[in-house]
Amino acid sequence: MQIMIKSQCFIKKICLFITVFIITAAAVCAQSPQIDNAVNELAKNIHGKLIEERATKVIVSHQFTFRESIPLFVSYWVNQLTGELANMPNKPYILLSDGVADADFRISGEIVETAGVIRVYTRLIRQDNRAIAASFNSDFEMNETTAAFFAGGRNGSTYIPLDSYEPDSWDNPVLFEIDPNGNITTMQRTISANNDEDFFLFRPNNDGRLVMETTGDTDTYMEFYDADTKRLLDENDDGGEENNAKIVYNVDAGKRYIAKVRGYSDENTGYYTFRANIFPRKEGASSWENPIQYELGVSQNAGVVNRALFEEDSDYFLLIPQNNGRFVMETTGSTDTYMELYDADKQLLARDDDSGEDNNAQITRNLDAGKRYIALVRGYNGETTGDYAFRAYILPPREDASSWEKPIQYALGVNQDARVVNRVLFEEESDYFLLVPNRNGTLVVETTGDTDTYMEFYDAGTKRLLAEDDDSGEGNNAQITYNIEARKRYIVLVQGYGGSGGEYGFKAYIRR
After folding, report:
1. Same domain, 257 and 297
2. Contact 249, 234 (CB under 8 A)
3. Into how many domains does the chain fold?
4. Bridge partners, 198 (sequence order)
5. Which residues pair with residue 260 across a beta bridge?
6. Residue range 174-193, pLDDT digits in tens
């Protein structure tokens, strides 16, 4: 009895699933008579060919595939086609279930998509020799209603249709007209499966700052090229709102540029809006290729460069320090600024929003003499405008600053009653301690306090790294245990984790 009840429940679930499927398909298709009309016309053509071929047994196969999946559309298409053929009057053939082996003809096909159009290729195949007796094409428009048929499928993916601008490519980009009055122009696009990429061609009539971005829920990635040389000029992932890409670039009148948009990964498909406009360049405009050359000063008496930010504007400052040291780059004024620091390879080294006074940006970073660095300054967002001042300078060394050449000499203690040296680390700063044990033993070196520290332990003579540690001590403190030799010189380097600063205590001792 229990087995019978379970079987009845299973059958009810199957029936419920089939009912829901039929209702869903019918509800969608009721809104798309073009699909029913296409099936009706196809059935008439196939029926005529079957009579001509004197067919007796025919299978309407479910082998209609679309991008290696079987979406809802396939089941509806096959069911409708089967129904139309089954209701043909005085037909000399019978319809068999898919999988029956003794049919003399099989109906199967493939579904492909072109820009805005779905095409169903239907083939009438002889079962004895696999020859194609006839082939039929059925076309209908892709719209929101018909697209719903392709949602889901056996592979579980969500169908995203090709947009009306496809197929586009590097050699066949979509011309994007820019409004000469600075108004934003938009274009609706989709990123579909199979690594779809969209190409936009720009031919600006005037010099200016071209602003390109995507909007919508799709995670996009953008690349910007010189169309004639195919040189990559810029690229961006999340510079726009949320996961949208955004690029601002100074362009020249008459030159050809291409923006390429794709999903961040193969799985990122969906709808998005591409939009762009162009702003006139301001006098004294700067760029990565033509930055403002700034002479680094000493301490806070450094020279100030007064600038003005327009909408979607950025300033670029070239910094070449003459000496190694810890440098401060900052803005002043009432404009809410944002700053990024790059090396010559365009690697982002640091970024900041409000570390300066009020809403000003400030970055403190160790820079190397003779190297080229770029400081980028922009408004907090693309709509932020206003006057600001930029300055950069090297901080004078602290009186108690240490280095490899001038380390802090520390007298080793015994067990945990060793002397604690209290220190303050600035950002991107390191302390160096010299240890010279008077006997062999097991050395313990550790930091104390609330600052997250990182430690390295060296042979002072060879500069060979012997050990390193992050959080082996209490909390976020570092601790190293190492067997040492009498009268050898050792150097301990301590820095804040990730270049951070803060107060900490240092102690080292030999276990008894």
Report:
1. no
2. yes
3. 4
4. 261
5. 199, 223
6. 999 988 777 888 999 989 87
